[in-house]
Design brief:
Chain lengths: ~220, ~220, ~90
């Protein structure tokens, strides 16, 4: 089981390093939107609420481009069938989940300094900001991985993924925006982080139960 | 399921009770009569969501096919839920216009029903994208189960985000209704009537799906 | 199926604007009633009149809907018998 997970994960990373499709698209998208916001803001200092909101909207939409890719790639290239045969469903899900978490963390790690740099954000407590961002990214990745598997079966339509994941991602997005605003203002974020972790835990548990039904074909 | 036929008695009773028997609420005036239609509709939309979620779980857990019609039944329940959620939103916003002065003002309950509608619209988009695929039932059931898992978190999130934005007096006429006995009776009758109507419609739709499936199996009919 | 859903929706939506005249009338009727009792009597009969009219409209809409549902129920039962026979 652990071998299967490690093997799948390694394979995903290798393909990603060879192509750099998901990350390239997501990072360019993130850079473009950040620049666009910065340009249109015209150097005005935005309020903490607006900054938190824009940060998460940029993060959410740029991540959406990359996160669905793990499963749609398998279906597009016809490798899903072999994956179904060679590894157990739980291993596939775990590997994809870990890969997605890594992808969104990389995106966040690139966006946060970029955003702070271009939009003049002065974060009062950087550690709280990092905690809120990590917890939010974890929640987004864990709730969208299983949806990506569903979308891949539907024929990899890009906007469908955003549509069906939006209502699911809405609560962590809300809480993450609140926590980020608190972090920028220098307040405590513990409650929001706990909520985000609880949300990720619940979604991962449900995803494990559902993934067999989604992944296996009769 | 003959008990759902009671809707033919309960519904006129609910209408008559709502207009003749129930007194008008203080502060709300005659608009309070909208209560007996708006609250049951909202209740039914939540009920339909719960029923379709549970039916989806049963459908996924049911490996040996003990419940043959359940695949259609969660879909039917979801479409009835969409209809009632839309009607509840419409009646609610008419009421909000009369009481609070605008059709839409991000009250916590309005927020939760718009989220319910978002989930339904996502569900139907997914459903139409999967048209003709054999895995359609399983995938849409899985999505409904995920959406149902998320729902409790909204209960935690929504009041926190929006009570702070709203000045208290805006919500008070809605939150602090003291229901008198007569009003409560009318409301309960109306709730029962609308729930019966929902179950009756669901049963009709399920029977219709069964007939359609049977007709598709043998096209010479 | 769609036709029935549509007509049910139409009927209920049509009933909503019809329910609005009652509160509008109430706004004129109740306020003076609380201030002075002698002006209240004609206003209240007028209000009750409007209220019962609204009730009848809603009742008629429901009766139409109910009859329609009943007809559909019968038709589905007939189709079910036909399918079970085969």
């Amino acid at each position: 089981m652990l071998d299967a997970i490690a093997g799948n994960l390694l394979k995903d990373f290798r393909i990603e390093f060879r192509r750099r499709f998901a990350l390239n698209i997501a990072l360019s998208f993130a850079a473009i939107t950040t620049l666009a916001v910065s340009l249109t803001a015209g150097g005005v200092r935005l309020a903490a609420q607006t900054q938190a909101m824009l940060f998460w909207i940029i993060l959410f939409f740029s991540a959406m481009n990359g996160l669905a890719h793990v499963f749609t790639r398998e279906e597009e290239e016809g490798t899903a069938l072999f994956l179904r045969v060679t590894s157990p469903a739980a291993a596939v899900y775990t590997a994809k989940l870990l890969f997605n978490i890594a992808v969104i963390f990389i995106i966040a790690a690139v966006i946060s300094p970029l955003y702070a740099f271009f939009l003049n954000v002065e974060v009062a407590s950087p550690s709280a900001f990092a905690a809120a961002t990590c917890a939010g990214c974890l929640a987004i990745a864990s709730s969208t991985t299983v949806l990506a598997a569903i979308v891949a079966k539907a024929g990899s339509r890009g906007s469908l993924f955003t549509i069906i994941s939006f209502p699911v991602v809405l609560p962590p997005l809300w809480i993450a925006i609140g926590a980020t605003r608190a972090a920028i203002a220098g307040n405590t974020v513990a409650e929001g982080v706990v909520f985000l972790l609880a949300f990720s835990g619940a979604l991962i548990a449900v995803s494990y139960m559902l993934f067999g039904h989604i992944w296996i074909e009769e | 399921m003959a008990i759902t036929r009671l809707v033919y008695i309960f519904m006129p009773a609910a209408v008559i009770l709502a207009f003749c028997y129930a007194p008008t609420a203080a502060l709300l005036g005659e608009t309070s009569r909208l209560l007996y239609f708006h609250v049951p509709l909202a209740w039914v939309s939540v009920l339909a969501f719960a029923v379709s979620g549970i039916a989806a779980i049963v459908f996924l857990a049911d490996k040996r096919g003990r419940f043959p019609g359940i695949e259609d039944s969660f879909h039917n329940s979801a479409s009835l839920g969409t209809l009632t959620a839309l009607l509840a939103t419409a009646s609610g916003s008419v009421w909000a216009k009369l009481m609070w002065g605008s059709y839409w003002n991000w009250d916590p309950r309005q927020t939760s029903i718009i989220i319910l509608l978002l989930i339904y619209s996502a569900y139907f988009s997914l459903r139409s994208a999967l048209a003709g695929k054999p895995a359609r039932g399983r995938l849409s059931a899985a999505y409904l189960v995920i959406a149902m898992t998320v729902m409790p978190f909204f209960v935690f999130v929504v009041p926190r985000v929006f009570l702070s934005l709203h000045p208290d007096p805006v919500i008070n006429p809605d939150m602090k209704i003291h229901l008198e006995t007569e009003m409560r009776l009318a409301l309960i009758v109306s709730l029962v009537a609308f729930s019966l109507l929902y179950f009756y419609l669901l049963e009709l739709l399920n029977r219709l799906s069964r007939i359609r499936n049977a007709a598709e199996v043998s096209p010479h009919e | 199926m769609n036709k029935r859903l549509l007509s049910a929706a139409m009927a209920l939506v049509l009933a909503l604007p019809l329910a609005r005249p009652a509160p509008a009338m109430d706004g004129i009727a109740v306020r003076p009633a609380s201030g002075a009792n002698e002006t209240a009597a004609p206003a209240i009969t007028e209000k009750d009149d409007a209220l019962s009219r609204v009730m009848w409209v809603v009742l008629v809409v429901w009766l139409g809907l109910g009859a329609y549902l009943f007809k559909i129920d019968r038709r589905i039962a007939r189709l079910e018998r036909k399918i079970d026979e085969r």
